[in-house]
Recover the amino acids of this structure.
């Protein structure tokens, strides 16, 4: 619905607005905001081209230095310390797709269960879910660490993946969406036609739930990819780090020994740039989905 | 009506799939439907119990003990809580987080609302492009966002000195003790305002445009339409982002943790309650006290959000 109305206004309104000159003020305002929101990206894109000398030489911080050397910096990034950076990216992808993907599967199943079945204890379970939405997940990190360490699971990939499967807000979004998007009559009709519960879910309900599925998938993958506190607490072997914890580690190393850290600074800068490129691309290319999807919780 | 149909179908299906000789009773069919419902919820339910309920209970349990190098672990009941709420480090962290939320949340909501309202009115290619760019900071990891701003603030590589130098002024030090509050405020606003803006923007797009026409015919100005129609109609979305912001800022961790290394001296390891819990648990191996802090923090956030939602219940909140 959101997409269609946006599309309709896109076609209709620009002609009318172009005639009104008072739009200059909002445009200036938006332009100023744009500069503010884009400047850090610009800074990182420009400074990724500099070597240590270029960074510290005192040239303009917002413009290229004499030597533009993206290739050299990339080469150093991917070969530094036996190519550990590439490993971090791989770890991030593993955690994000297994953890975030798994979380989405659980959300879809549970959301359908809450929205379309009436059973004893449903109210209570749903209240527990709403309570869980309000629990700050970082408060769980330390007890989860102690629990997992007793099972000898800390410092393994499971210590990051398993807790990432928990996404109460995803279940909530899925329930709210499914309640409206999948009509009861359709499920009953499928049942009359002799489809079992699981078959009804896969063939009738799931296609109707797709927009919500894509949104929850995108949100949980990004949340896992961006997570810092959980892997920071769970992992001590730097070979298992996701890229967020890895770059954090470089940053603390570079800050603590000012002289020897100069070459690390350029690695941190280009490493940050490389790590955000896949996210930026996926958000820009999937904007059709997230723009409608993010508002699901607020629209009724 | 739907309920009846369900029962009838349940009966029909139960008799075919289970191939029972006698037809099932209504109660049996209803029970079967219920069992299937639980089956769909079970996988999430298990994760919920293992990674949410169990850690919470476990944290509470651990927080009742104290372990000493000599003499082992003792049951101390609420001693750890008494210690926490008289611990200047914990209290200063709480005070900081409250002060920070009090400035950040209204600021962030106003900014995102202003941008959303503006982008709802100005529909040009440039505005659409800006909407995307303003959202973009949300998509990048908090660690990277903080590092980027850390660089911009930095005396070594940042542009601030250069810009202020051009006007003959000295650049403000957003990593220094006095201004680090604003430095952090800026990082968080930059990263989250776009996300909130998109939620509000989508809610605005969901309003029926005929309302504006009717109001205009009745002689309402653009300002009146904005304040009397648009803002009240997106109350739910405003509440949603307020709760998000509340939950987010009270568990503040990553930004100060990352900036700590750049802002030597202005951010201590006890800067926020979450950082203090992390330090207690992982640097000092004091898991009992760390758990007490974690649990208090979780509890305080939960109660704050719950009370808030209860107070705003009459206006119809998003969790219903």
């Amino acid at each position: 619905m959101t997409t269609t109305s946006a599309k309709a206004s896109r076609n209709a309104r620009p002609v009318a607005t172009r005639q009104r000159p008072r739009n200059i003020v909002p445009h200036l305002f938006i332009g100023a905001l744009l500069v503010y929101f884009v400047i850090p990206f610009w800074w990182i894109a420009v400074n990724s081209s500099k070597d240590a000398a270029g960074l510290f030489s005192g040239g303009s911080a917002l413009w290229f230095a004499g030597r533009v050397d993206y290739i050299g910096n990339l080469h150093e990034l991917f070969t530094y310390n036996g190519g550990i950076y590439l490993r971090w990216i791989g770890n991030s992808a593993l955690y994000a797709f297994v953890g975030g993907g798994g979380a989405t599967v659980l959300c879809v199943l549970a959301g359908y269960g809450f929205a379309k079945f009436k059973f004893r204890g449903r109210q209570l379970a749903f209240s527990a879910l709403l309570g869980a939405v309000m629990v700050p997940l970082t408060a769980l990190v330390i007890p989860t660490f102690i629990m997992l360490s007793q099972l000898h699971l800390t410092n393994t990939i499971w210590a990051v993946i398993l807790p990432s499967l928990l996404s109460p807000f995803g279940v909530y979004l899925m329930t709210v969406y499914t309640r409206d998007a999948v009509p009861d009559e359709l499920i009953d009709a499928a049942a009359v036609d002799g489809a079992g519960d699981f078959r009804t879910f896969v063939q009738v309900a799931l296609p109707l739930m797709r927009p919500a599925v894509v949104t929850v998938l995108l949100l949980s993958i990004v949340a896992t990819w961006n997570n810092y506190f959980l892997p920071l607490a769970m992992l001590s072997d730097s070979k298992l780090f996701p890229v967020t914890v890895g770059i954090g580690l470089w940053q603390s190393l570079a800050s603590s020994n000012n002289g020897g850290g100069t070459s690390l600074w350029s690695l941190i800068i280009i490493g940050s740039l490389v790590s955000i490129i896949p996210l930026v691309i996926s958000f820009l290319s999937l904007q059709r989905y997230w723009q409608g999807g993010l508002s699901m919780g607020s629209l009724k | 009506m739907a309920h009846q149909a369900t029962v009838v179908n349940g009966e029909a299906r139960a008799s075919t799939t289970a191939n029972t000789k006698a037809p099932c009773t209504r109660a049996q069919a209803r029970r079967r439907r219920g069992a299937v419902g639980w089956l769909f919820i079970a996988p999430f339910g298990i994760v919920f119990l293992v990674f949410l309920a169990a850690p919470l209970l476990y944290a509470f349990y651990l927080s009742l003990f104290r372990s000493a190098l000599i003499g082992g672990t003792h049951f101390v009941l609420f001693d750890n809580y008494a210690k926490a709420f008289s611990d200047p480090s914990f209290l200063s962290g709480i005070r900081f987080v409250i002060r920070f939320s009090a400035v950040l949340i209204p600021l962030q909501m106003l900014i995102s609302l202003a941008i959303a309202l503006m982008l709802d009115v100005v529909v040009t290619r440039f505005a659409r492009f800006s909407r995307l760019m303003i959202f973009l900071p949300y998509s990048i990891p908090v660690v990277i966002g903080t590092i980027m701003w850390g660089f911009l603030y930095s005396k070594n590589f940042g542009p601030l000195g250069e810009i202020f130098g051009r006007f003959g002024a000295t650049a403000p030090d957003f990593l220094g003790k006095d201004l680090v509050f604003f430095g952090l405020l800026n990082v968080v606003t930059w990263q989250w305002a776009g996300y909130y803006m998109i939620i509000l923007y989508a809610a605005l797009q969901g309003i029926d445009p005929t309302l504006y026409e009717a109001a205009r015919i009745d002689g309402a100005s653009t300002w009146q339409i904005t304040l009397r129609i648009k803002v009240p109609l997106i109350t739910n979305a405003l509440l949603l982002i307020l709760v998000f912001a509340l939950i987010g800022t009270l568990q503040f961790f990553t930004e100060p943790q990352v900036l700590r290394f750049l802002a030597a001296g202005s951010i201590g390891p006890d800067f926020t309650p979450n950082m203090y819990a992390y330090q207690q648990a992982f640097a000092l191996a004091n898991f009992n006290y760390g758990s007490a802090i974690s649990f208090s923090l979780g509890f305080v956030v939960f109660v704050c959000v719950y009370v808030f939602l209860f107070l705003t219940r009459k206006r119809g909140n998003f969790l219903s």
About this structure: Residues 1-19 of chain A have pLDDT under 50 and may be disordered.
